[in-house]
């Protein structure tokens, strides 16, 4: 803006005033510069105004330009105040996000590196424009016969969502440890969500999309129940395949609308394959043109059999695609059956439908 003012003053007749351009410079500097930078911009505008006035226009009456120079000074002062207000708001938002992420980590601790025959990794990416705590969750729990895991996304944000997340995690860990059938675990989670809805105000019913998985100790198969959630991706030999459910099922908390027994789908888990689970914050992320992110093309390459490396690479690609701006939180979990994993001596029978 200062440069534009100089160019305009040189190229236009002497009667044309560039002081409005000079006055705008500190105001434009306030949102992007520090306090010192904002004041320096105002001082530079004053200096340029003096130079242009007395070099091009010759002798001038002080009263003709006193108001204009005073305007620059006043606007510089206002810009400095605006700069400090915006800096304070940015700091408050940063502190709020840090608190939210700290609470999120306390509610949703990192998963273990190993569970049964599987290598495990998990990641959580908070939305760039949100400071509220989200309802994304993941959990993994080894049992004497298998490894059970869940990824879910509770409707809404804030403390209500966190309370529901806490209760879902507690119910899942208890049910995974003591209930033999995966469908029975879903029934227990559904009962919990119905209680949550009964405790909330009318019209504020909550629900949660979820994927529950059971992997027997030998690691040869995976049993999947999908409750309205984005399909997990099976990554193996340079190909990412969505594990779509054989039949759609309503999310947790909506079972009273007509859901019967949920279908359990069986898939093969080869040596060296990685199962990637995620919440909809990943697939609903958009680029600058509004196009949704699709993780399948990126994961359809030769990748190391390391769940942590795969998730880090996927998040790096997501950041590049969205230029760092997520509209919703994204939780991710990946499990890998190592290439050298040996088969177990026990084989878990398929879950009861």
Protein architecture, described:
With 353 residues, this protein is an alpha+beta fold. It folds into two domains: 97 residues, no CATH class; 226 residues, PPM-type phosphatase domain (Phosphatase 2c, domain 1, 4-Layer Sandwich). It is built from nine helices and eleven strands. A six-stranded antiparallel beta sheet has the order 1-2-11-10-7-8. The protein is elongated and about 90 Å long.
Tell me the layout of helices and strands.
Elements: H1 2-11, H2 19-29, H3 35-56, H4 62-107, E1 114-115, E2 118-125, E3 136-142, E4 146-154, H5 159-178, H6 182-199, E5 208-216, E6 221-227, E7 233-236, E8 239-242, E9 265-268, E10 274-278, H7 280-283, H8 295-299, H9 307-322, E11 330-336
Antiparallel strand pairs: 1-2, 2-11, 3-4, 4-5, 5-6, 6-9, 7-8, 7-10, 10-11
Name the CATH superfamily assignment of the largest domain.
PPM-type phosphatase domain
Q: What is the rounded distance between the termini?
A: 70 Å
Continuous helix count: 9
Low-confidence blocks of residues: 341-353
> If you compute it from the alpha carbons, what radius of gyration comes out, rounded to the nearest whole angstrom?
29 Å
Q: Count every beta strand, where a strand is a DSSP E run of 2 or more residues.
A: 11
Helix content: 40-55%
CATH topology of the largest domain: Phosphatase 2c, domain 1
The figure for the number of domains is 2
Architecture per CATH nomenclature, i.e. the level-2 architecture of the largest domain: 4-Layer Sandwich
Mean pLDDT: 85
* Shape assignment: elongated
Strand content: 15-25%
User: Could you name the CATH class of the largest domain?
Assistant: Alpha Beta
User: What does the largest sheet look like?
Assistant: 6 strands, antiparallel
How would you classify the helix and strand content by structural class? alpha+beta
Quaternary? single chain
Order of helices and strands: HHHHEEEEHHEEEEEEHHHE
Strand order, largest beta sheet: 1-2-11-10-7-8
